[in-house]
Amino acid sequence: MSRFIQIIAAAALTLPVLALPVPGSVAQASATAEAATLTISLTDIEAPQGRIMLALYEGAAGYDGGKPVRGAAIEVSGTSTSTVITGLAPGLYGVKLFHDVNGNGKMDTNPFGMPVEPFAFSNSAKGNMGPAAWDDAKFEVKSGTNNQTISFK
Amino acid sequence: MTIDFNRRQFIGSTLASVAASMVITPEMALAGALPPRWASAVADVDADIAPAALELIHGKAPAGFTGTLWRNGPAKFRRGTSAAGHWFDGDGLVRRWRIADGQASLAARFVDTPKRRLETKLNAIVTPGFGTSSRKGAVLNGPDDANAANTGILPIGGDVLALWEGGSAMRLDPESLATRGAKTFRDDLKGMPFSAHPRVEVDGSVWNFGGAGKNCVLWNLRADGTLNKAQVIKLSRPSYFHDFTITSRSIVIVLQPWLQEKFKFPLSTGMVWRPELGTQVLVIDKNDLTKQRTFELPTFSFFHLTDGWDEADGTIRFDGCFEADPTFGQTAASALLRGEFIHSPRPMLTQVVLRPNGQAELIASGVEAEFPQSDHRFVGQARRYTTHVSGYRDTPFPHQLARWDWKRGKSARFDFGNDQLVEEFLFVANGSGEDKGWLIGTTLNLKAGASELHLFDAQKLANGPLASWRAHAALPVGFHGAFLRG
What pTM was estimated for this model as a whole? Predict the structure, then answer.
């Protein structure tokens, strides 16, 4: 029983949310006639403080180890918040995020390497010994307005 | 006392106890086998048990005896057509046995873990464990998602902590038994393992460990349950160990050669027995965890140890229940859930002596023993007696309560008979000496189809219980407990 830690810690450390882009560092897609807007609502936030670090990935290849197309650091002051991402090309996307509760800019781990700050994925998909699978986390962004709600519960 | 159980749950629990006495696992049904007579020892309890008075069936409680025996143990192994793969993987049911004014009562409630919530929703056992595979639908994002909270109990800081060994302690409300959530001693230590065998000092402060391969965290709590310190140490080998001990100066970790060589589920399938390596004992200075010594002993396997002590010349002594190999944990404890009795090496009460010159030796008592207990007022001090269960014969479970006298080299024992399976008994002091006290514990009466609570005079163990009470439910055999006076 006591050795769960090692298995899970190894998996958890592969969470790419550890390597989030600094907001603004990612090139903005040029707005086109088909550009889409995505509103991401975050609910069931455990602590009303710190920042939620968000990474948006396009396609399976991006989600499974590629670079995010957008990143955001969202200030938290309650149990829910939201952010709007504009100028997206229509397509399939996935979101990984973690709540930087103490605002130190990183996903903290305990001495055995387990994350101690909350994390979540689009569609509120749950991982199993690692990030939620692309098939569970993917969602379609169409031209126009789109909404995605993600629960930390 | 108030407790938030409803009538439906209570009726459910009564039915559950009836069902438990004739449980047939899916495996047995397929095999066409009849359940063994001890099947209720590993049966499922389907609902919490509301507080109810027990029936006094023998003797009477000593005047003024008041207290609560907290116990924990797995009590839900099967859902739908699926079953846990190991006795250690059932959901923890916390039992509160109370004695006051000559009356006794029992309440029991499952710890509300993420594992139990998920498996209730799916009506399937999916969460991996010590001997259980990960199945479709499992959600494992941290050790506490697999936390069965089923092994030990530590009442401290206003909570009753239900202990497992791979994850956090789970906090329970002592009155309602409702689960308050996982215990986080400090934000950066969230999810660190807090084992089921804390050692409590005379001043109420606590030492504990949490193992993960070669990494081990050592915990030190104040008597109020707050964290004094937690420090990670590296071990020389990735031993599996379920228990540790302390002396007045040292922390003692027994490194059996049952090694976590691979990390896969079920966990026991990645653990390899390497008898050629011998068993080592790591002794760590309580005041400076970097000061460590290692002693070499002949090979043995074990689950449980007792409080240790130092002698004037620096010799360390403690005892434990040692087995020739880990067959019980590897296979026999899995087979129990299938109604099979695999004979494994008997656990034998043995004293470990660690000399200041680095030599180490084992002193055999010659008696079969498990669930060793002692007068915890003597933690860190020389001690004469070890109370334990014994009498393994026609079932996988013990039938006797015994007390070994290390000075005279003999036991006092009471045999409950073939119909009774004996669980851990604890020493409750009544006077200043190690002789003065009671032994309190529980049995599962197979014939009556009910669990029982018993109180003995520790000095007159062979005379049988001073008082025995019978519950209206048959609870499966559990693991460890703690007793609180008052």
Answer: 0.90
